[in-house]
Design a protein that fits this description.
about 300 residues; alpha/beta; OB fold (Dihydrolipoamide Acetyltransferase, E2P); Rossmann fold; Ribonucleotide Reductase Protein R1, domain 1; 6-stranded mixed β-sheet; 5-stranded mixed β-barrel
Length: about 300
């Protein structure tokens, strides 16, 4: 029988079969998928084949994993040379960001967007805590919205505290499987509590259930939405390491650069000091925002230093 993985704790999995029955599952032996060196062979969102193990306890064994439509990874918190698959079979990703308490850096946003681009997952950026914004934050939000919407991303403002913009964000989730991500404290768990009021989830139960001290593993959990679709909640990510993106490919995951790559004089142009570079020309003309170009250069440096 087929089932979908809703939660992984490393050794045990929670799956839901095609009839909607929730079961505990485990794997026998090791799974190797597409030669991927991963710390977790099975991820939330995976479609798997299960066989009954102990019918009285409602436990099953996972014997096979279907091919993934896509997946999103990060460097393993325990081993920078290995991948950790955050989730698979995703329709879109939604990044919760904030301009204060805590502030989300542009570098973090860009790394998240690059990862989503690399796995061809459309992204939405939602800035929470808009009720705290003074004039300086309002100006910054308008600037950031302008930068990212110009290159094809949807950017929204929201205040969970004041219930502003929440319904509009919920509408984006209908009938889709959406990965929710962001730093701790940006309101991701509070948003989930609004969707599932009948569960009366404590914030700690959703974003902190893996334990603050556990830096070696990252758990995710999927929920069925009452209005259709599913969300995958990920514990707050402090840093997002890029996985297996060579520096030569980095500009391919900046949509505004990708459009110009073929116009550069050299096929292997890195858009730094080469003559006839269409990307640098676009930066000088202002059609590529200088902040995005600086972000590209900073991330490129980090890849070269092998710090990801």
């Amino acid at each position: 029988m087929k089932a979908t993985v809703y939660k992984s704790t490393g050794s045990w999995y929670v799956v839901q079969n095609e009839e909607g029955v929730v079961l505990n599952a485990r794997i026998l032996g090791k799974f190797k998928i597409d030669g991927l060196t991963s710390t977790n062979p099975i991820a939330v969102g995976d479609v798997v084949t299960i066989v009954a193990e102990n019918e009285q306890e409602g436990s099953v064994t996972i014997t096979e994993i279907d091919d993934r439509r896509n997946y999103i990874t990060r460097t393993s918190p325990a081993n920078k040379h290995k991948h950790h698959i955050i989730a698979s079979n995703i329709d879109q990703s939604l990044l919760f960001a904030t301009l204060k308490d805590p502030k989300t850096s542009q570098g973090f946003m860009d790394r998240f967007l690059i990862t989503s681009e690399a796995y061809q997952i459309p992204s939405i950026i939602v800035f929470n805590k808009s009720d705290l914004y003074k004039e300086i934050e309002l100006e910054k939000f308008a600037e950031v919205k302008s930068i990212y919407e110009a290159i094809g991303y949807k950017v929204m403002g929201m205040s969970i505290e004041k219930n502003i913009g929440v319904a509009e964000v919920k509408d984006l989730l209908k009938d889709k499987t959406t990965l929710l991500s962001g730093h701790s404290g940006v309101g991701k768990s509070s948003f989930i509590n609004i969707i599932f009021p009948e569960l009366k989830l404590k914030t700690q139960d959703v974003s902190g259930w893996s334990g603050k001290g556990l830096h070696t593993t990252t758990f995710a959990e999927m929920f069925n939405l009452p209005f259709g679709g599913r969300i995958i909640d990920t514990p707050g990510i402090r840093e997002l390491g890029l996985v297996d993106i060579p520096k030569q490919e980095l500009s391919h995951y900046f949509p505004e650069m990708r459009e110009l790559i073929n116009d550069c004089q050299f096929n292997n142009c890195m858009h730094l000091n080469e003559p006839g570079c269409a990307v640098k020309e676009a930066v000088q003309e202002g059609s590529i925002h200088i902040d995005r170009y600086i972000s590209y250069c900073n991330i490129l440096d980090k890849i070269e230093e092998k710090s990801y």
